[in-house]
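ok trying this again, last paste got cut off
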Amino acid sequence: MEITPEIQNTLNHIDEKFKTINQKTETHLEGLLWAKPITYWDYIQTDALLNLQIQRTTLPDEMVFIMYHQVNELLFKMILWEIEQVSNATTLTTKFFAERLNRISRYFNMLTTSFDIMGDGMEVEQYLKFRNTLTPASGFQSAQYRLIEFASTDLINLIDHRFRATIDRNTPYEHAMEHLYWQAGGKDYETGEKSYLLKGFEKKYKGEFLAFMEEYNQKNLWQKFKQLPEEDQKNADLVAAMRHYDRTVNITWVMGHYNAAVKYIESVPGNHEATGGSDWKKYMLPKYQRRIFFPELWSKEELEKWGE
């Protein structure tokens, strides 16, 4: 084979790459002789992915339910991936920030429009049968969604509005966690006793949540925005992207989820609990807990009518 200038230039770059990590270029080149060509199914890990759906019942539509939620978790991972790029950027531009926020909003748009898969894509009769087999598991227990919230805004904006006056940035993270808005969905309203749903969730993820809260205390999306030069904070495209993300996550997506739940949960006479027994209306409806990531970017009137 003729070593053209282009090939030689590529080889030089390869050599430089391996020298920077103290590796022998010839060793890696020889390794290419024995490497298998990559295939789609190996790269995507198709076989592993398609074997992660394990039904607990014999009802066909349970498979739809499982795969739908697995797709959601994959999209949550994509969202966290984009947030991480913004939060860890050493030099952050308004263009990069806005582009990543718009990517995240598109992922949430997919999540919102996909509720038809559950709302119209499962037989109510089948759902009402297999839902009891899934108890006490619930979408309430999606850890990735909690991480998205922690990575998006200051913790105070995720605190139940009834307790915000007693909590500030110096409050211990464990105390703050006890007063997060979603705690209301896992506690008895009168006694304050935690449900099995919430106890199991915290046993699994509490340590991870507390560490993540501390890690993102100074690098969540709102803090990264406030760390920009004042002129950049007025950038119209970035502000629009911030507002769109806030509304998409905390109103549009939540209401899509709520409306899908209504069809199934309220079809049961006298039984309006979610699969894990949570008080789903208080937990889900934005007008109750007023989940707002970037309240300073909204007018007083907009804030007052949030979620209506």
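PB: full thing came through this time. The chain has a mean pLDDT of 90.
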